[in-house]
Amino acid sequence: xxxxxxxxxxxxxxxxxxxxxxxxxxxxxxxxxxxxxxxxxxxxxxxxxxxxxxxxxxxxxxxxxxxxxxxxxxxxxxxxxxxxxxxxxxxxxxxxxxxxxxxxxxxxxxxxxxxxxxxxxxxxxxxxxxxxxxxxxxxxxxxxxxxxxxxxxxxxxxxxxxxxxxxxxxxxxxxxxxxxxxxxxxxxxxxxxxxxxxxxxxxxxxxxxxxxxxxxxxxxxxx
Length: 223
Ligand SMILES: Cc1cc2nc3c(=O)[nH]c(=O)nc-3n(C[C@H](O)[C@H](O)[C@H](O)COP(=O)(O)O)c2cc1C
Description:
Its EC number is 1.6.5.-, 1.7.1.17. The protein has helices at 16-30, 52-58, 67-85, 102-111, 157-167, 186-222, and strands at residues 2-7, 36-41, 88-94, 118-120, 126-128, 134-140, 174-178. By secondary structure, the protein is an alpha/beta fold.
């Protein structure tokens, strides 16, 4: 299984989202999945913010683009290619000010591409092109935003991710949200991490079953 693994915490060794995403890949390997990872740290290799040149080039028909426009879109094209080459995505991120880290938003701005990750049919319907892949979002939050808590109405992260990725074809992503990891007592933080680790182990086992089914049917087709 080829996984496109993206981390986006500003923290490094101290980062919970990085630790959890690494543990998830280890879980998959322990389940016997043959994992190949394409890794991107958007805090080190941050995709460019949208520029005027990008905003014009991205909506121009491919055959009408100048060489300069093609050069403007080259890095975004390359990111899209990495998505299509993967069987699954693992996107890990902390919540920053109720939404996503800006480096991950820049990533989304680069991979939401007309004619590539979404296409428009003749009758005007949008068809997202990334419906083949399994998708896991691992989010870490300082507060507890689960239903019934004071901050539960402040979650602008989950709907933003669902909308952006739904548009490009991801209709059933899995979310593992570790919370509260900062603004709480030690006991609640430890419990939150344990819950997330247990959830990730369950997701890994589900993905392993999917992989066995997928590769098994591929083998049958080629037999
Ligand atoms: C700049 C910044 C903004 C944050 N904003 C929020 C927030 O709006 N809500 C929240 O619950 N936690 C917030 N946090 C806390 C982090 O989401 C939390 O500590 C998380 O576990 C960090 O993940 P990491 O360890 O992978 O960096 C913020 C942290 C930072 C550094």
